[in-house]
Amino acid sequence: MTLDQLNRASPEAFVAAIGEAFERAPWVAQAAARKRPFRTVADLHDAMMQAVRQAPPARRLAFIAGHPELGSRVRRADLTGHSQHEQGSLGLDRLSAEEFERFARLNAAYRDKFGFPFIICVRRHTRDSILRQFERRLGNDAESERARALDEIAWITRLRIANLVEGPGKPSTSGRLTSHVLDLVAGGPAQGVHLSLYEIGTSARGLLCEAVTDAAGRTDPPLIAEAPLRIGTYELAFRVGAYFAHRQPPAATATGFLDVVPVRFSIAEPEAHYHVPLLVTPWSYTTYRGS
Amino acid sequence: MTLDQLNRASPEAFVAAIGEAFERAPWVAQAAARKRPFRTVADLHDAMMQAVRQAPPARRLAFIAGHPELGSRVRRADLTGHSQHEQGSLGLDRLSAEEFERFARLNAAYRDKFGFPFIICVRRHTRDSILRQFERRLGNDAESERARALDEIAWITRLRIANLVEGPGKPSTSGRLTSHVLDLVAGGPAQGVHLSLYEIGTSARGLLCEAVTDAAGRTDPPLIAEAPLRIGTYELAFRVGAYFAHRQPPAATATGFLDVVPVRFSIAEPEAHYHVPLLVTPWSYTTYRGS
Amino acid sequence: MTLDQLNRASPEAFVAAIGEAFERAPWVAQAAARKRPFRTVADLHDAMMQAVRQAPPARRLAFIAGHPELGSRVRRADLTGHSQHEQGSLGLDRLSAEEFERFARLNAAYRDKFGFPFIICVRRHTRDSILRQFERRLGNDAESERARALDEIAWITRLRIANLVEGPGKPSTSGRLTSHVLDLVAGGPAQGVHLSLYEIGTSARGLLCEAVTDAAGRTDPPLIAEAPLRIGTYELAFRVGAYFAHRQPPAATATGFLDVVPVRFSIAEPEAHYHVPLLVTPWSYTTYRGS
Amino acid sequence: MTLDQLNRASPEAFVAAIGEAFERAPWVAQAAARKRPFRTVADLHDAMMQAVRQAPPARRLAFIAGHPELGSRVRRADLTGHSQHEQGSLGLDRLSAEEFERFARLNAAYRDKFGFPFIICVRRHTRDSILRQFERRLGNDAESERARALDEIAWITRLRIANLVEGPGKPSTSGRLTSHVLDLVAGGPAQGVHLSLYEIGTSARGLLCEAVTDAAGRTDPPLIAEAPLRIGTYELAFRVGAYFAHRQPPAATATGFLDVVPVRFSIAEPEAHYHVPLLVTPWSYTTYRGS
Question: Which of A4, A90, A100, D224 could form a disulfide with A201 if both were Cys (CB 3.0 to 4.6 A apart)?
C-alpha cells in the first residue's frame, strides 16, 4: 500500500492496513489516523511511536507486556555442529544445550524483575549480541528498561512499517557490508578472489555467504545489503594464495606465506555501511574500516 | 662432548660418542673417524653423510631400510576435540580416527612400493605437512625416493650431531618466529598486547603458546626459537581490542571494530627467521613478512 | 552539431562542419562523408583516420608535413621562478632558457632527419614528457616515425571530433585523478584536509590546484577530470599535521611527526582513472594506486 | 680524561680539566669538586648544574649573561641556492638575506627585553627550529626565560662533559635516524635502494647524506648517529622506481607509478631513535614511525 493511499483511506481501512505493526494495539494506528496526512513514511512511523509514548502509563505498560516472549522463537538445536556450519547465521533456532538453558534462565529472571518480557529487535542482532544485551539489560532499573523496551519497539515497528508502506521518505532500515580487494603487485583490482563471510559466535561459526571478486575487485551484490546488519562479530576469509598462484606469471612462490587471509571485525551499527577492503601482496596485507 | 675432544679421541671412543646418530650404522662413524680432524661441527656431519652417500648401494639401501617405521610414533587420539585445543602442537600422537587410518594406509603403500619405510625429519614438520609429503612422495619413482630419504636423514642427523657435539661451526638447526606490535595511534611500540600462536591443521587447531608484548612491542623470548620451525600453517591472534580499551584515554570506542586480530600464515623454511609484525589502530592493521 | 545532423547533412555541410579537425586536409572529411551513416562518434573518427591511412603515400606524407611546427607554441619564459609556482601547469609557454634552446635544437634535428615536423598530442603530455618523447623519437627510423605521427594525429583529432560532435559512442578522451583521505585514528573519512597538486618538472614545480576534502574524505570535483591527464610526474601534498591538530581532542601531540605528506607519482595513461588514497594517522600512512 | 682520574685529581686539576664546559664560570667546577667522588658521568654533570641552580641569583644571572651572542656564529650566505643544495645541513652560516635580518632583529629584541643573550643548544636544532624557538621565547616572561636559559645550558654542557670525560653512566647525548626498506613483492629486504636525506628548511632544502640499502634492507651506518638529532623537518627520498626496474624480472612496468618516494617527517626529540621504514611495491607504500 502507498503512503498516498493511506493518507486518503478511511480510518478503518488505515488501521486494517498497518495496525498490526504494533502488536495487539490497534489504538496506536487509530491515534495516528487522526494526524494524517503524512508527508513521509518516516513521519507516519514517528506519529505512531508518539501515540505510544503519549499513552497513559498503564496502557503503555500493558502494550509492552503484550509482546510475545523472545523464547517462542528459541529452541534447542538438534543439529550437529557440522550442519550448523553449512546453514549460515547462528540464529535463535539453533542454540546449543548450554545456550538454551542460559536463555531460559534469562527469560525467567527478566520477567521476574520487570513484569514484562524482554523485547529486542532481533533482526538487528546476532545470537551472541542478544545474549549479551540480555545480561546487560537485566542489570538496569525498571524505568530504564521501560524506556529501552520502547526504543526496541521503535526499531521493530520501523522495519514493519517500511515493509508495509511504499512512499517517499522511507526510514533507512538497511545496512551494507562491502569489500574490495586490490592487488598491490599488479597495481589494480584483484579479480577472482574467493571470499567467505562467517558469523563468529562464542560457541560456533556460521557461514553466511561466499562470493568472488569481479573485475573491479568488488563483490556484486554487496556481501550484505537490503536488511539491517546484525550486531556481532564477523570474519571475512579471502583466498589470496589461490588468487596469486593462478596469476600469469604466478606471483606466489613455492615458499608461500599467505593462503587464506581471515579478517575479523565487529559490527555495531546495523544501519551503517561497513566497507572492509584488503590491499594485498603474497607477503603482506592491509585492511581497515573504509568508507 | 666437544669437537676438540672428538678430534683427539680413540676411534672406538669417537664411534661410541656419536655413532648412534646414524641408526644402527656404526660404520658411518667409523668412516668419519678416519677423516679427522674436523675444523667445524658442520664438517664432521658432512663427512658422516659423505660416508653414507659413498657406501656401496646395497649397504646404503640396508641403512635406509633399517630406519623405524614412522608409524611407531603414531597412535590414534582418544582425546576429545576440546582437549586437543588445550594441548598445543597437533603431533602424531594425537591423530583423529580418520587421520590414523590414512596414515596406516600410506605407510603400507609406501613400503609396498619402495621396500623401505617412509623417512622424514619429523621435527621440521607439522602433522599436516607430513601427511602432505607422504602423499606427494608416494608418487615419486624409486630413485628419487632413495635420494629423498638420504636428504631427510641428513636433516635428522644434523639435528642429532648438533645436540651431541659442542664446538665451532655448528650447523644452524633453529628457526625463529617473532612478532612486533606497533600502535599507530600512539606512534610507538604497543606494550601489553596478548597474543596466542596456533598451529592450524586440517582437522583441528592447537594452541602452541601465549605471550604478552613488552615495552618494545615484542615478545621475549621469541614465539619459537632454538628449534626448527615446523613446516605448516599458523595463526597469530592479537587481542588488540583489549589493548586499546585499556589505554588512557581509551583509543577504542563503544563502536569497536577490531577485537581479536587473527593473522594466518605458512612456514616453509624451518631454519629461517619469520618475523610477522602488526601495525595497528582500532580501525586498521597492516601485517607482512618482515625481516 | 549532432552525429544525427552530420549523418543527414549534405557532403559540403559535413565537410564544413568537421573538416578542419584534420589540418588543411578537407579530403579526409570528403572521404568519410561517403561512408555515412555512422552509428557512433567513435565510428566517425575511425572512418576519418582510415581515410588518412589508406590515402596514397605521397598525399599522406604531405598531410603529415602540413602540420605546424610544435615550436610555434613554444617561447622562452620571462617569468620568475616564483610566479611559475603560482601559475600551474609547466606549459610550453614557460620554458627556461636552457629548455628553450634544447627545444629549438630538437625541432631542427627532427625536421632534418625526417623532413616533417615533430607531431605530438600536446594535451596528453607535460612539458617534460614532450621533451622526453622528442629525444626518444629522434632515434627512430623514418618508417616508425611516419606511423607514430599518424598515431599522434589520431589522438589530436579524436579530441577535436569529440569537441565538435555530440552523439552516442563518443570516444573517451578524459582521464580522472581522484584522492581519498581516511583517518585511521577516528576510523572514517578525514574531512577538511587541505591538499595541493603539483606538476613536478625537471627544472621546476607548478601548482595545479588546491582542494579540501569533504565529509566523504574526497575532493569534489575530482582533482583532474573532463580532460586527458598529462603524462608526467605529480605530487599531492596532504596537510595532515594541521588536520590532526584541529581534531577534538587533538590527535597530534607536541612531538608531531607528520605535517605535510607528499605523495609523488607518475601518470602514464591519459585516459585512465588514477585514484591515489591516503590512509593516515599522525604517525603513519599508506598510499597506493587505487581503483 | 676518565671519571676515575677526575675523582682522584686535585681540585685545581679537576677545574682545569672540565671547568671550561661552563662558559667563564670556573666556580661551577670548584663547587662540584667538593661533591666528589661521582659514580657516573651523569652524576658529575648533575652536580655542576646543581651548583649553577643553587648559586645566588646575581651570580647565576651574570653567568647566563656571560654567554656569547648566538649572532657570532651567524652570517649572511653569499652562496647561491644551488650550492646550498650540495652542502648539507642548512646551518647558521648560510642564512639568506631575509633570514639574516630576521636574526639580527630577534637578537636585539631579545637582549632588549631580557638583558641577556638568547641561549639555545644549537647542536640540537636546525636553523628553522632555532628561528621558531627564538620567536616563541621572545613572548615569554623574564622568569620563564631565565629558567629556559638554564635548561639550554644544561643541554650544552651535557654534550661538553660527555665529550671531555670517559667513564660509566655517560648521559645519552646521541639520537639515531634509521630506515629499512622491505620489498613486498619479493617478500624480503630491498637491497640496493638509493636514498637521500634532506633537511627541509622554510627557504631551502639541504642534502644531508646519501646511502644505499644493504642485504638487510637497512643502511649501515645509520643515516644519523653519534650526535644529537637536530629538531626540524626532514625528507627521505627513496629511489624505488630504479630499484624495481633493475629486479629480474623487473617488477615495474612501462606504466610506472612510483619513482622517487619522498617521506617527509619532523624530529622533535634529539636524543631519541627515529626509525622510518618503507614497505613498498611498485604501486604502493606504507611508512610509519617505527621502533
Answer: A90
Using CB atoms, which chains have 3+ pairs under 8 A with A?
B, C, D
C-alpha D201/C-alpha D223 separation (Å) is: 19
Task: Judge residue A271's burial from the number of C-beta atoms within 10 Å of its C-beta, 0-12 exposed, 13-18 middle, 19 or more buried.
Answer: middle
User: What is the pTM for the complete model shown?
Assistant: 0.92
Give the C-alpha separation, C236 to C97, whole Å. Answer: 28
Q: How many CB pairs under 8 A join A and B?
A: 59
Inter-chain touch A287–B284, beta carbons under 8 Å? yes
**Does residue C84 surpass a pLDDT of 90?**
no
Alpha-helix runs per DSSP H in chain A: 3-8, 11-18, 26-33, 41-53, 57-65, 81-86, 97-114, 127-138, 142-164, 240-245
Subunit contact B216:D291, Cβ cutoff 8 A:
yes
ipTM of the complex: 0.91
A179 close contact with D: CB closer than 8 A: no
Q: What is the CATH number of domain D175-287?
A: 2.60.40.180
- Condensed to tens digits (0 to 9), the pLDDT of residues B154-211 reads 999 999 999 999 999 998 899 999 999 999 999 999 999 999 999 999 878 899 999 9
pLDDT band at C70 (very low <50, low <70, confident <90, very high): confident
Residues of chain A with CATH 1.10.3330.10: 3-164
d(CA C22, CA C161): 9
The reply to whether C287 touches chain D by the CB within 8 Å rule is yes
User: Which amino acid belongs to residue B68?
Assistant: P
Interface probe, candidates C181, C182, C183, C185, chain B, greatest B C-beta count within 10 A: C185
Find which of D181, D182, D184 to mutate to test the A interface (most A CBs within 10 Å of its CB): D184
Distance CA B33, CA D146 (A): 79
In chain C, residues under CATH classification 2.60.40.180 are 175-287
Q: How far apart are CA B32 and CA B55, in angstroms?
A: 12
Q: Which fold has domain A3-164?
A: UraD-like (1.10.3330)
